[in-house]
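Appendix B. Chain record.
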Amino acid sequence: MARSDDPDDESSAEEEDELEVPPRRARRPRRPAASEKRPTPVRRWRSGTDEADEDEEDDTAEPRHRFWQRDRRPVYWRARDSLYFEPLVAVAIIVVLIVGLYAFTQNWPPVYVVESGSMQHGSSDVLGVINTGDLVLAQKIPLDQITPYVVGIQSGYSTYGEYGDVLLYHANGQGSTPIIHRAILFLQWDPNTDKYNATDLSGLRCGNESGAVYRTPGTKGDCGTTELDGTLDLYGIGWRSANVSIALDPTELGEHSGFLTMGDNNLIPTGCTSGCSGLPDQESGLSTLVEPGWIVGVARGMIPWVGAVKLLLEGNAGMVPPQSWQFLGLSIVGIILLAFGIHYALRAEGIEDERRKEQEEEEAEEEAEDRAERAESRGRRFLRALRPWGRDSEEEPDDPPPRRKAKPAPTDKGHGRPTPRVRRDAKPKGKGTSDEDDL
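Structure tokens predicted for this chain:
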């Protein structure tokens, strides 16, 4: 009798043998680009009883930083590493300047702004002369150290382009803004005779002599220096060699001792170049003789052009010479360049700690490597953009997986079910056998 097995079981077994697929190999992870931030490695789970887990550390893991911590910490702390270094240095410089100026002048405030052109030598800015917009230091000194103009002629002592000292004083001992003019002569009041003495004129040429400096009409030889009344004439005073005539009237000069003062540019007529007449403060009614108690200080030092900024803010910069603005601008540019020069000089090689220098070199090398990796990554992306169907050799596995064997196509036109196969017994080789007997 013929024997046949279940065709479905046999075919399914064969299909399982043919369709058996080897396990897929794990694809190698793509190496992150340099520009991508590497994720923090996941720590291994540690059990409470496993002491070996406590000793294992991931040496390749990057340290975790808080948001308030800097990624790069200096090897050692420097003052200029702080964010407050520049403001503190600026404040320290200002404090040192103010304290130094006060210590030098013994006066507060130590500096004053020149608000008029009464001391200028002309309408333009002249270096070394007091001009409108300059800052002048007012130093307190004893009375016997003040040198008037007529004394400076004999000794050769000069300040700011002319003989004698320049005084800062309050007119008639009143007012908040001091006047800055040159001391010409010190007159001593004699209450017994109600006259003045001018002992500072002693030793100078006088009267009708050639090159006479003064003349006192009504005195012996017109050269008297004591018990003076009437007028006092001075010749060749100031940068314009002006002639000054003073009425020795106690009602105008005051019944007290003091300095006769005048601005270098207080001339009549205004702007004259020759044959000028000087106009003292006591003749113009600006003040009487300047008493020692009215003096704020003597001009000792000057910071040019800086005070012009204050006058500009107050709307009084009309008398500032045009050259002063040019010099001020050049000075500001020079100060900025000097500051940058000092800054880079302090950062020059050889003045920093060797540890910091080594760290900066390492950081520079790391930055160069990062730039090289980023450039290489951009090159790969560019090549992938040109060949989107290909893959880089780094991403391809070493051994490609074996191809899957194709499933045999069905022979019938049914519902896709394979044709059953019937296994028949072998026929005997005798006579009289036929196919019908087998059935």
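Further analysis of this model is presented in Appendix C.
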